[in-house]
Automatic annotation (TrEMBL), chain A:
Protein name stated in the entry: Glycine betaine/proline transport system permease protein
GO molecular function: amine transmembrane transporter activity; carnitine transmembrane transporter activity
Alphabetical list of InterPro entries matching this protein: ABC_transptr_choline_permease, MetI-like, MetI-like_sf
Pfam families: BPD_transp_1
NCBIfam families in UniProt: ABC_choXWV_perm
PROSITE patterns cross-referenced by the UniProt entry: ABC_TM1
A GO BP entry: glycine betaine transport
Membrane topology qualifier: Multi-pass membrane protein
Alphabetical keyword list: Cell membrane, Membrane, Transmembrane, Transmembrane helix, Transport
Automatic annotation (TrEMBL), chain B:
GO biological process, one term: response to osmotic stress
Subunit structure: The complex is probably composed of two ATP-binding proteins (TmoW), two transmembrane proteins (TmoV) and a solute-binding protein (TmoX).
Name of the protein this chain belongs to: Trimethylamine N-oxide transport system ATP-binding protein TmoW
Record lineage: Bacteria, Pseudomonadati, Pseudomonadota, Alphaproteobacteria, Hyphomicrobiales
InterPro entries associated with the record: AAA+_ATPase, ABC_osmolyte_uptake_ATP-bind, ABC_transporter-like_ATP-bd, ABC_transporter-like_CS, ABC_trnsptr_Choline_ATP-bd, P-loop_NTPase
Family: Belongs to the ABC transporter superfamily.
Organism expressing this protein natively: Ancylobacter tetraedralis
Length: 283, 397
């Protein structure tokens, strides 16, 4: 019995490989196109960030943080953190990572929020995609790293795709949560005054769900950041690169510094993304 | 002309509409229908017509279907059978069957709604909440602002325009709800227990404000309440519901004097008759008073007589040969000039004089009251005897 079981192996892996082969032979142009667009997006964004002189950009970040949060402590912290990163010599890598994180989040929002809305409106759809979302978050990253590598080649794009796969469940779930928790009374108020479906979406559902969706986006940013090292494995530039290199050469000093830069960036992003306290508003 | 008319509507919540309708036709109760089909009977065989400019109060115990039929007027509830006619741009439209575009038009322009839990959007300021309906309708910003300011002034919230709704007390929030409903200038207002979530003092105040507004703007108001005093205070017409059916509809006095069944009688038992009953309910009709030619005898001894003209209008008073004076009291509240009353020997008042007002008049002047109809013809006599007997009859049931 046992022998029979092991001898008649179901060729699951082979099937998937064949499927990927099929995609590469017949859909290559599609993947090339996606690759081109996403590569352009990241490349452009990185170039823009690096074009600005570092000290000026740091000042701009601090200014934006001040305008949004009005907190002296936060501004001081951001200045210190970014100057430290620059001092360590990781300015360029930090900007590359920032670019990857932002592009991944951008894709996640553009794709994830509409999916979340659609799922909130159609319970069957949510039932359908929930296991897929669970899968995307639990399956070891390396497993889908290989097919993305095959489909998109080496570089920033497979890094981005893997990051998106890992982080997109957060905005989908939280958008779904936000929209489906709109109180029926508010829907009725909208309908009673003649709101169309679109008006209901933009004037009732989205405003109500906005805080939850924002939380989803913040989560998405943090999840994306946690993928930088993995992305570096498939050739994406950024702070992951020195970490991987340090790992390969057992370079404690370099590993520590690069790791510190990642942590610092994570804290900065987290603090900046936190919703500012709304004045005198409960709930 | 009626502004809203229910024509024999049935409302069923649940999948098995057909089965439920069949059981309704067999005259089954809500519980039987629920057991047999799993569908909840919302309303059955409801027919009611609400006149333009009227405040119609839907009353009944919790779960009797008041909200259900109210919400059929703007199709927040679907009607399984029957028609809900709403006067929209001069025509009677069947809301239950009109197309989406018409429905939207009706919701934007003809029917607006005030909710029990206010239904305000917490992320909007008071101003933007009031302007919500106008915004959906696509009213330009400048005009919207003008209208909103006007309505905010109307409900006394001008200084609160830029606040968020959760910074307001419940009473103020409901004023925002009222202003939002008034802003679209709809002719028909639906109010589902708008004041129930408020404490009694505020409730009383808002009721007064609503009546005051109604005197100025003459909307058709359909008002749900389970508070008898509120219904009596506001309603021109009261419809009493039980188990999804209307058991009686009419004026407060109608319902008080002629309750259709034990449920209604129970309902009105604690009602204060003084505010509801009118002169007609207690008076001795003119036809039953003894006559001598063109004179009607008012007292037992036959010494006080009133002379009426050919149409039956009282023109002179005869106090045992002496000429008496008549003084006129106005309106259902029986307002009268003090000096006139002092010099008069008999009061002439309209036949719809409230019983409370009749007693006040009696106490104030100690004169007999002649009731005349709206053409001025003698309708009846209302003196101590009549008032006492009328009250006793009520109290005895
Ligand atoms: N959307 C719905 N789905 C299912 N059943 C409903 C729905 N709305 C109302 N019902 C049922 O219809 C019946 C009448 O409800 P309705 O809300 O009209 O009562 P009501 O007279 O307004 O009572 P209350 O004074 O408590 O508001 C109730 O038995 C209720 O359970
Ligand atoms: Mg109700």
């Amino acid at each position: 019995m046992y022998d029979w079981l092991t001898e008649h192996k179901i060729p699951l892996g082979i099937w998937l490989r064949d499927f990927v082969d099929l995609l590469t032979t017949h859909g290559q142009s599609v993947f090339d196109f996606i690759s081109l667009v996403l590569g352009g997006l990241i490349g452009g964004f990185t170039a823009a960030l690096l074009w600005v002189p570092p000290l000026l950009l740091i000042a701009i970040f601090a200014l934006v943080a001040w305008l949004v949060h009005r907190s002296v402590g936060l501004v001081v912290f951001i200045l210190g953190a970014l100057l430290l990163v620059t001092n360590l010599g990781y300015w360029q890598a930090t900007m590359e990572t920032l670019s990857l994180v932002f592009c991944a989040t951008f894709v996640c929002v553009v794709v994830g929020v509409p999916i979340g809305i659609a799922a909130a409106h159609r319970p069957w759809l949510y039932t359908g995609i929930r296991p897929i979302l669970d899968l995307m978050q639990t399956i070891p990253t390396f497993v889908y790293l290989i097919p993305t590598l095959v489909l998109f080649g080496l570089g920033a794009v497979p890094g981005l795709i893997s990051t998106v796969i890992f982080s997109i469940p957060a905005p989908i779930r939280l958008t779904h949560l936000g929209i489906s928790s709109v109180p029926p009374a508010l829907y009725e108020a909208g309908k009673a005054f003649g709101a169309t479906k679109t008006q209901l979406l933009f004037k009732v559902e989205l405003p109500h769900a906005l805080p939850t969706i924002m939380a989803g986006i913040t989560q998405c940013i943090m999840l994306s950041l946690s993928m930088v090292v993995i992305a570096a494995l498939v050739g994406a530039d950024g702070l992951g690169k020195p970490v991987v290199r340090a790992l390969n050469s057992v370079n404690i000093a370099m590993g520590f510094e690069a790791g510190l830069a990642i942590v610092v960036l994570a804290i900065v992003l987290d603090r900046v993304c936190k919703r500012p306290e709304r004045r005198s508003r409960k709930g | 002309m009626s502004a809203v008319e229910f024509r024999n509507i049935d409302i069923v919540f649940g999948a098995d509409q057909k089965g439920a309708l069949r059981l309704i036709d067999e005259g089954r109760t809500r519980d039987e229908i629920l057991k047999a089909t799993g569908a909840v009977l919302g309303a059955a065989g409801v027919s009611l017509s609400i006149e333009r400019g009227e405040i119609c109060v839907l009353m009944g115990l919790s779960g009797s279907g008041k909200s259900t039929i109210l919400r059929a007027i703007n199709r927040l509830n679907e009607v399984a059978r029957g028609a809900v006619l709403v006067e929209h741009k001069g025509a009677m439209i069947d809301v239950a069957r009109c197309d989406e575009a018409t429905l939207r038009d009706i919701r934007m322009n003809t029917v607006s709604m005030v909710f029990q839990q206010f239904g305000l959007l917490p992320w909007r300021t008071v101003r933007d909440n009031v302007g919500f309906g106008l915004e959906l309708r696509g009213t330009p910003a400048a005009e919207r602002r003008r209208i909103v300011d006007e309505k905010l002034a109307m409900v006394g919230l001008t200084n609160w325009a830029e606040k968020y709704t959760n910074e307001l007390s419940g009473g103020m929030q409901q004023r925002v709800g009222l202003a939002r409903a008034f802003a679209t200038d709809a002719d028909i207002l639906l109010m589902d227990e708008p004041f129930s979530a408020l404490d009694p003092l505020i409730r009383d105040k808002l009721q007064d404000e609503l009546l005051d507004l109604q005197r100025r703007i003459h909307k058709t108001i359909v008002f749900v309440s389970h508070d008898l005093d509120e219904a009596l205070k506001l309603g021109n017409k009261i419809a009493i519901m039980e188990g999804g059916r209307i058991v009686q509809a009419g004026t407060a006095e109608d319902i008080l004097l002629r309750p259709a069944n034990a449920y209604v009688a129970e309902f009105v038992k604690h009602m204060n008759p003084l505010n509801v009953l009118r002169g007609t309910a207690v008076m001795r009709p003119a036809a039953s008073l003894p006559r001598q030619g063109d004179q009607v005898v008012l007292d037992k001894s036959g010494r006080v007589k009133v002379t009426v003209d050919a149409q039956g209008r009282p023109i002179a008073l005869d106090l045992d040969g002496r000429v008496g004076r008549l003084a006129t009291a106005d309106g259902e509240a029986g307002r009268i000039d003090d000096r006139l009353a002092f010099e008069a020997d008999c009061i002439v008042a309209p036949v719809d004089l409230k019983l409370r007002a009749a007693i006040e008049l009696k106490r104030h002047t100690d004169l007999p009251i002649l009731l005349v109809d709206n053409l001025g013809c003698l309708a009846g006599l209302c003196d101590d005897d009549e008032i006492y007997r009328g009250l006793l009859r009520r109290l005895d049931g």
